# Entry
Amino acid sequence: MELHRSAFPDKHTEIHDIVADDELVACRCTVSATHTGKYFDADPTGKPVIVREMMFNRVREGRLCETWAMTDGLGFYEQITGLPAPPGVDNLG
# Structure
């Protein structure tokens, strides 16, 4: 998590939809940030990055206990490197 914060310190999440049913909470959002720090092998570009995400969270007794997330990892990789994502990159960000 610290790596992500240092690479994208101005991260902002815009929530578009939240749907809840019993313990399950679904969320659709857009994350925007500026790539100002090294992220794994990607040197900082200073460019804005926009990533769309969807996730399901299980909440029990007021605490988050499980999360399943789907992130546009391919688009994220291309935005920070300027290159097509290599095989195996599909859900990071």
